[in-house]
Amino acid sequence: ARQCNSCDSPFAEVTSSGCRVLYDACPKSLRSGVWWPQTKFGMLASVPCPRGALGLRGAGVAVRLCDEDQGWLEPDLFNCTSPAFRELNLLLDGLELNKTALDTVEAKKLAQRLREVTGHTDHYFSQDVRVTARLLAHLLAFESHQQGFGLTATQDAHFNENLLWAGSALLAPETGDLWAALGQRVPGGSPGSAGLVQHLEEYAATLARNMELTYLNPVGLVTPNIMLSIDRMEHPSPTRGTRRYPRYHSNLFRGQDAWDPHTHVLLPSQSPRPSPPEALSTSSSSMENSTTSSAAPPPVPPEPEPEPGISIVILLVYRTLGGLLPAQFQAERRGARLPQNPVMNSPVVSVAGFHRRNFLRGVLESPISLEFRLLQTANRSKAICVQWDPPGPAEQHGMWTARDCELVHRNGSHARCRCSRPGTFGVLMDA
Question: Which InterPro entries would you find in this protein's record (predicted)?
């Protein structure tokens, strides 16, 4: 069906007798679910938020500039929010003003509520993303400071699932513009997609650290945009060459369809171990990249070979995170040339290891191999393996760097990278 609510010319307005061109104003038009009134050049139109939306506090207003050269610019709905998120914003205010505090019972309820609200939302406003991201950051930070049976996951079988589904909703491809708007309007006002990823990785590391102590089962979860695997490597076998993770076809992922069963990590079948002396004690942040640490860790004295204890492999696979993280790139390796129009053309995979009660950091004895299924095969060339360098305390943006990784194989649909340390990786290509 055709609609008679717009004209071909951006300066023409629908009237009862057809389209009429205006020479000093932008025409009445429908955009983002709002009818914008005829507005003179250089003026700002201001109307109530779309039907069903509210202001974060009080009545919400959407604005749009009528530009003399371009006509209508894109509407600004920054002050609009969905009703369910206004209720969540009250919870957020309580936490940020220290009027309320999280505990296990409240954490369980909040994770459940975040999953319910994001699960029933088809269209997000920037404020919806901000409120959800900040609540999720509070929740993940709270859990990352717990230990043993203080972890909510030991009290609630659905807790990890609820957290991951809410995180997945925030990392859907269509939230990209909303994250960008938040970064411009309220720098530091939300953790940003990179901050959210860091919180998720720290929480996954907390679960791994407490797995032995709490008898928590290994985790295998699939959500629309994130897959999480926290798995044991219990029986090192010198005879087997490598092991593949995540183990998509094992009971760990039973009843869940992986959206990309081809992207995986290959690890030596013997427990991964650092090249001495770079093991990191459990008190430090698990996923912290060695480049973000201001001081090198003190040398660790060589240990006698212990009994083969459990090693834990932590993997997060993000379907479209490459399009949401800041597009900052650096070659930083001799012979590595960045593509002219770089785009992330693979899922993003985060790998960490926990061995002998230490998180692995720095250069490993045996490198990690990562096999990626490429997102797009047409009009893509010049693959380069890259690692995400998270922002330091004084920096606003992290960046992708070609350091510590090399491309070892690529065909029309897959690429294989070999990386010398744990971290967060992807395949950059020329568009």
Answer: AGRL2-4_GAIN_subdom_A, GAIN_B, GAIN_dom_sf, GPCR_2_extracell_dom_sf, GPCR_2_extracellular_dom, GPS
In angstroms, the CA 200 to CA 69 distance is 45
User: What integer pLDDT is reported at residue 56 of this predicted model?
Assistant: 62
Instruction: Report whether pLDDT(385) > 80.
Output: yes
The whole-angstrom separation of Cα 109 and Cα 194 is: 25
List all residues 6 or more positions away from 50 whose beta carbon is below 8 Å from its beta carbon: 32, 33, 34, 62, 77, 80
Q: Give pLDDT tens digits for 288-301.
A: 443 333 344 445 44
Pick the CATH number of 215-431 from 3.40.50.150, 2.60.220.50, 3.30.2350.10, 2.60.120.260: 2.60.220.50
Chain-centre distance for alpha carbon 14 = 43
Could you tell me which residues come within 8 angstroms of residue 11 by beta carbon, excluding any fewer than 6 positions away?
A: 21, 22, 23, 26, 27, 71
- For residues 403 and 387, the answer to whether their CB atoms sit within 8 Å is yes
Specify the pLDDT at position 123.
Answer: 85
What are the angstrom distances between the C-alpha of 95 and each of 82, 88, 114, 137, 139?
20, 11, 15, 11, 10
The model scores a pTM over 0.90: no
For 78-136, the pLDDT digits (tens) are 888 888 898 899 999 999 998 889 999 999 999 999 999 999 988 888 889 999 999 99
Phi, psi of 44 (to 5 degrees): -105, 125
Give domain 12-81's CATH superfamily. GPCR, family 2, extracellular hormone receptor domain (4.10.1240.10)
| Cis peptide preceding 246, ω within 30 of 0 | yes
Omega within 30 of 0 (cis) for the link into 276: no
User: What tokens does 337 get?
Assistant: 């040339």
C-alpha span between 117 and 139 (Å, rounded)? 16
